[in-house]
Write a structure and sequence with these properties.
18 helices, three-stranded mixed sheet, binds guanosine-5'-diphosphate, alpha/beta
């Protein structure tokens, strides 16, 4: 098992650190900043890491993502580590609900991004700032791989020319090499146990040998086939870098975003073979858009022929890549989006608001956002018999508008 890095706390540790910090902050800043208990839960300590070669536009993208988002005061760790950003998840449903309920306050949910710089050829062997950054990747839950698809003579390419597939291969090779290291280390431990005829160790060793051969061919852990759930758990325990879900962000120019280009097509073909998603953006323009106020932004976007900033799609896709969904709560006081992992039960979803809600869960009253939108009001949904009462087993869906009944 690979120990959790000390430089960069693991997701669970970060969650508790942040929860503590937010509560601490709440005490210190009482009267200055409104921080509700639930805000400790909105970012669940589940993060998407932005990786790529130097000079592909990672920081430009990260800065655009975080430039007008969450108040750092609410999340002290943002101020401690400038590479971590908590970003609002754009959700047009919130605006509709806010108008419908004439609400006093609207609160979006959030997702966490980490700018992971410094990954270069040879990183797995410690080149550049090598291992340190690889351990940062280990601490995130999904990867947004930025590839350079823009030509600009003023911006030096580390390999001398723009070639996104070569760049992807360089990064992937480093990550696969590191995984190979992890698998080999684990094999050394398991081999000793297997010698003493430990059946579980023998089975794990057999899986590790297959995994080693697979990685040795330059393939990622993502495409490795586990024969059963035990193998899957054993592989998960290795925390392999190339097992993390990944999407590609093609950093291109304005024309590339509008019409595509052969570089983006090449990345798309590669991604299709891996079942990964591609989001083309122009980080430079996104950074400019992010600086504008709402009115100017709409004019600028219209000029560019864009319906929404490319960043909005990056955020939504990252959120989905992390296996997260949104449920909503709606009332006159507050309309709010909440994050849960896919396949969460109603009590687990209630627990995101407050642990008492989970502990004392009685039932949930649920309507679908689409029904509310189509029929126009909560009363109309009730009249149509579509406002349901659900129990502890209910699996929450994206877009559920929930009201919890609990007793503690
Ligand atoms: P990083 O090393 O991957 O974090 O790259 P940076 O975000 O620091 O960008 C490196 C350089 O490329 C900077 O000078 C940026 O202004 C420039 N850059 C980033 N995105 C774009 C883009 O979409 N188009 C152009 N022409 N330049 C960009």
């Amino acid at each position: 098992m690979i120990p959790c890095t000390r430089v960069w706390p693991c997701a669970r540790t970060r969650h508790w650190l942040r929860t503590f910090a937010v509560l601490f902050n709440r005490c210190c800043l009482a009267g200055r900043v409104i921080v509700t208990h639930s805000e400790a839960h909105t970012a669940m300590g589940i993060a998407c890491g932005i990786v790529g070669l130097p000079n592909v536009g990672k920081s430009t993208l990260f800065n655009a993502l975080t430039s007008n988002n969450i108040e750092a005061a609410n999340y002290p760790f943002c101020t401690i580590d400038p590479n971590v950003g908590i970003v609002n998840v754009p959700d047009p449903r919130l605006n509709e609900l806010s108008v419908g309920y004439q609400t006093e306050r609207t609160v979006p949910t959030t997702v966490e991004f980490v700018d992971i710089a410094g990954l270069v050829e040879g990183a797995a062997k410690g080149e550049g700032l090598g291992n340190q950054f690889l351990s940062h990747i280990r601490a995130v839950d999904a990867i947004a791989h930025v590839v350079r698809c823009f030509g600009d003579d003023n911006v030096v390419h580390v390999s001398g020319s723009v070639n996104p597939i070569r760049d992807i291969d360089i990064i992937e090779t480093e990550l696969v090499l590191k995984d190979l290291d992890s698998a080999t280390k684990r094999m050394e431990t398991v081999t000793k146990k297997a010698r003493s005829q430990d059946k579980e160790a023998k089975d794990e060793l057999e899986m590790l040998q297959r995994l080693q051969a697979h990685l040795n061919e330059g393939k990622t852990a993502r495409s490795f086939h586990c024969n059963n759930d035990v193998e899957l758990e054993q592989m998960k325990a290795l925390f392999l870098l190339t097992a993390k879900p990944q999407m590609y962000i093609c950093n291109t120019d304005e024309a590339g975003v509008k019409n595509g280009n052969p570089l983006i097509d090449a990345v798309r073909a590669r991604a299709a073979a891996e079942g990964a998603l591609v989001v083309p953006i122009c980080a430079k323009i996104e950074a400019e858009i992010a600086q504008l106020d709402q009115a100017d932004r709409e004019v600028f976007l219209a000029d560019l022929g864009m319906e929404e900033p490319g960043l909005d799609r990056v955020i939504r896709e990252a959120y989905s890549l992390l296996g997260l969904i949104t449920y909503l709560t709606a009332g006159v006081k507050e309309v709010r989006a909440w994050t849960v992992k896919k396949n969460s039960t109603a009590p687990q979803a209630a627990g995101v608001i407050h642990s008492d809600f989970e502990r004392g869960f009685i039932r949930a009253e649920v309507m679908k956002y689409d029904d509310w939108k189509r029929l126009g009001s909560e009363q109309a949904v009730k009249d149509a018999g579509l406002y349901r009462t659900e129990g502890k087993e209910y699996i929450v869906h994206d877009g559920d508008i929930m009201h919890f009944r609990f007793n503690v």
